[in-house]
Design goal:
Blueprint lengths: L6 E3 L8 E7 L2 E6 L10 E4 L4 E2 L4
Antiparallel strand pairs: 1-2, 1-5, 2-3, 3-4
């Protein structure tokens, strides 16, 4: 289960990490935790596709 504030990846083999900003039904709004990343902006994605990011 994903919650607001969690850090996630969009796919299990992904490198980029995102923070969940909001969840509405089946849709989560996420934004890159790397604020210097090109095109860093909030965007919607399906909750079922998100993978918890491992803490290093």
């Amino acid at each position: 289960m994903v919650a607001v504030g969690d850090r996630v990846k969009l796919v299990s083999s992904g490198v980029s990490v995102f923070e969940v900003l909001a969840i509405e039904g089946e849709t989560a709004t996420v934004e890159s935790v790397d604020k210097d990343a090109p095109g860093c902006y909030p965007f919607p994605t399906r909750v079922t596709e998100l993978v918890p990011a491992q803490e290093d």
